[in-house]
Amino acid sequence: MINKLKKIAAKRRRAERSRFKLRQSSSRPRLVFNKSNRYLSCQIVDDAQGTTLVAASTLEATFAGKSRKDVEAAKALGKAIGERAASKGLKIVMLDRSGMIYHGRIAAFADAARTAGLEF
Q1: What does the alpha-carbon distance between residue 106 and residue 15 come to, in Å, rounded to a whole number?
Q2: pLDDT of residue 40
Q3: Eight-class DSSP state of 35
Q4: Which CDD domains match (predicted)?
């Protein structure tokens, strides 16, 4: 149990460290990717204003009837956030992966977002 708590604390520290660096380094909006046990979600956040500019999640009705947490769902989510960002005029963002490694669902999401028009 203690090892599990140490792992969770280490993950939080990694996430906070990367977020702090991203907030300090640039004035570009952050593309934040989150994954839970059931769903995937992402949002583009403007740290200067403290607002969410665009958001998408596999909890939405457009993902109904499909798997909501696998690599294919991550690709569809990346495409959706790219299209919504383009409609708002957003093109250049920073990817905030919250300390998670760039592999699997995160890599699929990022590649789909890039093909949809986002640059990071």
Answers
A1: 14
A2: 96
A3: E
A4: Ribosomal_L18_L5e
* Residue the block writes with tokens 């992402």: 42
Whether 120 and 93 have beta carbons less than 8 Å apart is answered as yes
- One pLDDT digit (tens) per residue for the chain, 120 residues: 889 899 888 888 888 887 787 777 778 899 999 999 999 999 999 988 889 999 999 999 988 888 899 999 999 999 999 999 999 999 999 999 888 889 999 999 999 999 999 998
- Cβ atoms < 10 Å from Cβ of 7: 10
Give CA–CA dist 104/116, Å, rounded.
Answer: 18
Query: What sections of 1-120 are H helices per DSSP?
Result: 2-25, 71-88, 105-115
Tokens of 7: 């792992």
Domain ranges, ordered by start, for the chain: 2-115
Question: Cα–Cα distance between 65 and 110 in angstroms, integer?
Answer: 23
Domain boundaries 2-115, CATH class = alpha beta
Q: Of 115, 116, 110, which is closest to residue 35 (Cα–Cα)?
A: 110
